[in-house]
Design goal:
Keywords: Membrane, Transmembrane, Transmembrane helix. This is Putative MFS family arabinose efflux permease. With about 425 residues, the protein is an all-alpha fold. Helix content is about 80%, strand content about 0%. It is globular and about 50 Å long.
Length: about 425
């Protein structure tokens, strides 16, 4: 254990950039399906409809859900560095194989298998940056990490504008797999190991981790209510994230925008997400995670409803930017709250459960968008539906309660 501690201290500075890079690759996956869907829907040999395209999205997200639920407990038990290596290698190889899919069935299967690795990246990365980061800065540490998620999404939207017309949609998956050639060797050489009982885990937490299943700890000792509230909020947040990133280009096309403008609006949405993350973490560290999360979900509802108004010129870009500022960081604030709410010995399991159960919302988002598009009412009713989901997210967050959040904020401030 002493050797592991020395190794961790020597490579502590590598944790944030390596985890950020891994999360950026998951950000690629967040947006790439939405970027290529307009091309897939017009691929004559595939014969896709909005409904069958939604099914492909759902299959991939089921893989992500299984991966998230499995990776957290595995990382808490066998080590987070090993879990990170396994997830990055697996989803990179399978993303590359998506470029060679011969039809929708093969493509959907590869998306499912890639999702198993993708789902494990986020809970492991969030657990590591919270363990190795500075105490009392959980909000900004989490939101800074998640800028990688949306930086990857922004880059993917930019690449889609250039790559798809110039080359083909298949090239997007080749490009998405290439960064692993650099990232995997760096993770193997520089990412420190993080095991239960290492770092900030207290003796009491170490004893509990040895005695109990880490997943069972999430519903014991007064955590049941808050766990249910976090899972519900994560469901709503990921419904918004995946629903918008999958279908925003098609919804805007239904509103009368050209394909180039619709893809540009997807880019603007994710630029807003990055700006929102940089702001949300600092606000949460200053005024409290509970107040900030409720406010962010409520603001997301407002700006999503405003997207139902067709604005001329730059107005629509400003409106989409502001929606991005609040929609995506609402979900990340939930992760930040989870990271500080549970003991370190079960942190990855708690994050994996929030992310994994939240993936049911990620599955629902594309299904809802596809159903509205199929019915011909995605604009403007899609934005009203997403606004209602954001309001439900705010209600779910209230369910965590003031006392639990206040106690944890006080503890963080004391450690700082």
């Amino acid at each position: 254990m002493a050797d592991a501690a020395v190794h961790g201290d020597r490579h502590r500075g590598w944790v944030a950039p390596l985890c950020w890079s891994a999360v950026a690759l998951e950000g690629f996956d967040l947006v790439v399906l939405g970027v290529v869907l307009p091309s897939l829907l017009r691929e004559p040999a595939w014969g896709l409809t909005p409904g069958t395209a939604s099914l492909i999205s759902v299959v991939g997200l089921l893989g992500v859900m299984v991966g998230a639920l499995s990776a957290g407990p595995l990382a808490d038990l066998v080590g987070r560095r090993r879990a990170m290596l396994l997830t990055v290698v697996s989803f990179s190889v399978l993303t590359l194989l998506c470029a060679f899919a011969t039809g929708p069935v093969v493509f959907g299967l590869l998306r499912f298998l890639a999702g198993l690795g993708l789902g494990g990246v986020l809970p492991v990365a969030l657990a590591m940056v919270n363990e190795f980061g500075r105490a009392g800065r959980g909000g900004s540490a989490t939101t800074t990490l998640m800028t990688g998620y949306h930086a990857g999404a922004v880059l993917t939207a930019l690449l889609g504008i250039w790559v798809i017309p110039s080359l083909t949609w298949r090239a997007m998956f080749v490009i998405g797999a290439l960064p692993a050639l650099v990232l995997v060797p760096l993770v193997a050489a520089r990412l420190p190991e993080s095991l239960p009982g290492a770092g900030r885990v207290t003796p009491a937490e170490r004893t509990g981790a040895a005695r109990h299943n880490p997943v069972a700890e999430l519903v014991r000792g007064g955590y049941l209510r808050s766990s249910i509230a976090f899972w519900a909020a994560s469901f709503m947040g990921l419904l918004l994230v995946y629903g918008l990133n999958t279908w925003l280009p098609e919804i805007m096309r239904a509103a009368g925008y050209e394909l180039g403008a619709a893809l540009a609006l997807l880019l603007v949405l994710n630029v807003g997400a990055v700006l929102g993350l940089l702001l949300a973490g600092r606000v949460a560290d200053r005024i409290g995670i509970r107040t900030t999360t409720i406010g962010w979900f409520s603001a997301a509802a407002l700006f999503l409803a405003l997207l139902s108004i067709r604005l001329p010129g730059l107005g629509v870009y400003v409106s989409v930017l502001l929606a991005g500022v609040f929609v995506f960081s609402s979900q990340v604030l939930v992760y930040a709250w989870v990271s500080r709410h549970y003991p370190a010995s079960v942190r990855a399991s708690a994050l994996g459960a929030a992310s994994g159960i939240g993936r049911l919302g990620a599955i629902s988002g594309p299904l809802i968008g596809g159903a509205l598009l199929g019915a011909g009412v995605a604009y403007p009713w899609g934005f009203y539906a997403f606004a209602a989901v954001a309001l439900l997210g705010a209600v779910a967050v209230v369910g965590v309660g003031r006392e639990a959040a206040g106690d944890r904020d006080t503890a963080d401030s004391t450690r700082a």
